[in-house]
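Help! Submission page says 'invalid entity' but I think these are all valid:
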Amino acid sequence: MSGAAWAIGAVLVPLAGATAALVGGARAGRWVGLATAGASAACAGGLASAVLAGGTVRHRVGGWGAPLGIELRADGLSALMLVMVAAVGIAVTVSAAAYFGGAGGGEEQGRRRLLFWPLWLFLWAALDALFLAADVFNVYVTLELVGLSAVGLVALAGDRAALGAAARYLVLALLGSLAYLLGVGLLYAGLGTLDAGGIRAALGPGLLATAAGALVLGGLALKAALFPLHGWLPPAHAGAPAPVSAALSALVVKAAFYLLVRFTREILPGAALPRAEVLLGALGAAGIVWGSLQALRQDRLKGVVAYSTVAQLGYLFLFFPLARDAGAATALSGAGLFALAHALAKAALFLASGAILKALPSDRLDGLAGLGSRMPLTAAAVAVASVSILALPPSGGFAGKWLLLSTAFATGRWGWAVPMLLGGVLAAGYSFRVLERAIASTPGDAPPVRAPLAMELSALALALAAFAVGLVPWAPLRLLGAGGALAGVAP
Amino acid sequence: MTALDWMALPFLAASAFFFLAGTVGLLRFPDLFTRLHALAKADNLGLGLAVVGLAIRSGSAAVAVKLVLTWLLALVASSTSCHLIARGARREGVEPVRGRR
Amino acid sequence: MTSAHLFAFSGVALLGAGLLGVLAHRHLVRRVVGLNLAGSGVFLVIVALARRSDPPDPVPHALVLTGLVVGLSATALALALAVRLHRETGAARVPEEDGP
Amino acid sequence: MTAGLALDVLLAVALPLVGLAAVLRRDLVQSVMLLFSLGVLLAIAWARLGAPDIAMVEAALGAGVTGVLFLSALARVGPDDAAPRAASVRVALAALAAAAVAPVALAVEALPRAFEGLGREVLARVPETGATHPVTSVLLDFRGYDTLLEIAVLLLAVLGAWAARGGAPSPRPPAPGPILTAAVRLLLPLMVVVAGVLLWVGSSAPGGAFQAGTVLGTTLVLATLSGGVALPRVPPWVVRSMLALGFAVFLAVAGATAASGRALLRYPGAHAAGLLLAIEAALTISIAVVVWALFERDPEERRAEGEAGGREGEAA
């Protein structure tokens, strides 16, 4: 199969799965989900190997080609993101099949079993479509797909704080979409094209570029849970069912970041918005400190993990100031590795808390004592994933953070290293609060209810994968570099 | 202006008058029921006269038939909704204003 | 002033009104009203600017048709959330930014 | 100043003012009503801008679907009893909103007064598509992929609304009464015919699946609300299948085109028109069911309630 066929499959397969899950209903859902996850992941893998072998893959939908038609494009960065979605996606699917499995649980549980699968598979398709889009209006549609499926998944929980957070996120996200859409509309009104490459070629500095650039970047930043607009994220991610939290915290937050990278570095360099890049970095730095401090104050595992996402997202945003001129290639490698490792480790932690919640009455940190002897697999998952979140060598988190730090030193932008180092110290604080309880040798009784083995194993597999990224960082980096990664940036 | 336009003019002018009257009534009448009464004037007479005027101007029988159908549909819809609003108001305990204000 | 630019400015003003609606209110339904106004403003700008040729450029029309459907979907979801929030908390308020 | 330009000026001034009124009204119901009025004015504006397709959708949405959604939400959501913010805060927020949109106005002002866009290229290549109406060509052929994903967004609205709704029963509409029942009986067949016409003309004139589907969906809602016309009780999986039908057909066509080695959604020339009509027909049914499902209770709930409850009598 050609690279383009894999790319098309990566979108159509989960869409078909979502449709089948909707029609098939609660009983068929998990089997449809498992089959779809396998096939979608195979498409992502096929696409990645095609990109590795032959560079950037392009496809003209409808055969028209830009500017009349829509094009799909997969370069190294897109392929890496698709692989990230696939890896996390499989684990989430396996875990969810156990989490939502079984009969009974009343009407409410039946509703969840019915709605989770189509919502989740639509989300998967939306993410794949977003990472493959090369048309700025098509990006708008995929963004809405991601946003609405994410809100639907959070609403599934029915937890009061999560509902409020979902409402707040929806309003912010819609406002962000409108700003983005207006920016796209202005670009079209000025340039007569919606194709990313066409806009890059045609856009020069001027009033149009500044206004449209500010609208597009501002709209995306609204959706990215960037400090100080991060307030909805922790309650939404902490309050959702564990597999949902894993998908949201690992994958959905990356979508807006990915688009910001594309727009600042690739589509709108003509807009010349250097101050926007510094602003994004500064807000990221504030997010690192604030998120870490809040994570220290949480008394539930899911709360710690959710606030840690706010902090870890901050690291990613340091990419923007670091990537200016000389630092672009190293910064991109660092951000790519960091995003991948964070996705794997964060999903592992949320799936582990899901397993804990199945077996123990709550995920309060006080109640976790003796986890190592009571749920050894889950405790191992928490421990290994925390090592990557802490960015201890040789984990994946370390590899990414190290590359970002080296960019700061190599380009003489020492200031940006300070929040990274400070964030590391704070992360040590909140991670050890979890770890000391999880792996301390306090003897504990085996829990009366066992968590499904599939949930424990999927968490552990993800944690090990996050660690392994640090052992073989060349593998994702080679993929990232294939096909030029970003136009104008050669790692 | 063509001859057809001149022939249509009185109907359109009369239509505008009834719409204006209906709107004034909507704004000035004392209670819900009399306001509905004013609105019905605009829908029934104003729209009807506009339809006649436009049908003359169009000079085509097919268009005229479509216009008349539109008017009939609007009549059904407006009388039904006026009835529903009035009935709903009565159930909620809204009483017509009696006497002069 | 051409009609195209006239309506484009009207759309920008409508967007401003909608933005004010989102900023000034915390009731979720009111915010959805504001978002609908802002959306209409954005659509108006896009379609008005397509009127700068004769016949008008059909591509923005298609984009706005897609945008209207997306907007309807978002409105439906937001209103369902508002009803649920009202049932759970007794008020369809969007919670304040919690900055503890 | 010509009469046309005078109308444009009137509309262009009225639109933001009505919008502002909707924002500033204290009473939530009045605010929503002003939003509907804005929809009517917008429909005229779309017509003035040479966008009849959008005018039709705006009218169908504002008068039909969005209206029903807002009104049924208002019936269940309490009034906005928040104390109004201090005048100084309101002025500051208004200034903020104005400052946010001012640069957009400047950028619009800087755009050239005449601009072709892709219009000429679209018109030149419409004959190569399965439709003859340019907007339909863009929606289903040039940018058919967007439309495919857009239908997924619509399905997500239903799934999300069901997820958000939880186990709450929808409110029962008050007893309909003879006049409404008679009117609905009169209008139903007509609306079905209108939907059919809209679907059929869609390939060559303004219209198409979305317009037809919303009309049909609103008809279903009206039938449910009026109570005068009994809809058949169908099992939940049938409802879900009808919801998914349009998307599934579109997706199957997409998959088949990709699998046949053509580009994704490149319709085979000879069958393009037929395929587009099949997609549009299936979409019409699904969009109608989407509209109805957004309003009705979800199938699981209907089943849980069982046949025992039946419909409430016309007693009231």
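Support: the input was valid. A stray whitespace character was the problem, and the output above is from the cleaned input. Chain B has one domain: 3-91.
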